[in-house]
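Appendix B. One record, verbatim.
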Amino acid sequence: MKITIILLILTVTFFPPLCSAEEGSEIYRKMPAMLADLLASKTPVNYAKDRGIGLKDGAVKVIVEVGENSSPAELAVKYSLAGFKVNKNLLISYVKLDTLKELCKDPSVIFVRMPARLLRMG
């Protein structure tokens, strides 16, 4: 019992969460862990490079699913996203990391993910 408590204290002390509880719950609820960890990273460029996440001028390409009563195009305009594409309730765009944090807090956003990567065989 004492060992468990000591291990728990050491874990909390030396391995803090990647983001604050408030920010983390919102981010992790609306996107995959790898994307949320990218946002929480102190060195996002290195994090992205190490994991094969493509960044273009400090922005990551994402697919944003919005609620049925929301407009993906209006969301893109609200967050000043240039060069976006819309497909039904999906918004596809490069989004700056700081903007992505705000975007995932928007009530009209259901989920944010990166596009699937195709792997070459052979």
